[in-house]
Write a structure and sequence with these properties.
The chain is an all-alpha fold. 74% of the residues lie in helices and 0% in strands. It has helices at residues 4-25, 31-38, 42-50, 59-68, 73-93. Helix 1 packs antiparallel against helix 5. The longest helix is centred in the first third of the chain and has 22 residues, at 4-25. It is globular and about 35 Å long.
Length: 95
């Protein structure tokens, strides 16, 4: 059985990879353009797309970015399930 910390790291990488793929498939809009449409900073866009941070990004940031990237409702729901799994592991791990 996979250690929770290892599983968490793998799931976070998967989410970041999925977001980067969505970004590429959308034609790689600039971080400035994404930030302006989502209402967050360019540095937050960078952190979300690259999976940087001690916790997963807020769902509404991910959801808004997926909308900018033109992703289907089905794909959004699939990534939301991944995000929920990540958050559950983060909660279990504690602060």
């Amino acid at each position: 059985m996979m250690d929770d910390a290892v599983k968490l790291g793998a799931l976070r990488r998967r989410l970041a990879e999925e977001l980067m793929e969505a970004h590429r498939e959308a034609g790689e809009p600039s971080y400035s353009a994404i930030a302006g449409q989502v209402g967050i900073s360019k540095s937050t866009v960078f952190r979300v797309l690259n999976g940087i941070g001690e916790r997963s990004p807020k769902w509404h940031h991910v959801d808004d970015m997926l909308e900018v990237f033109g992703r289907s409702d089905r794909e959004v729901e699939r990534l939301r399930a991944l995000w929920v799994e990540i958050r559950a592991l983060e909660k279990a791990a504690g602060p």
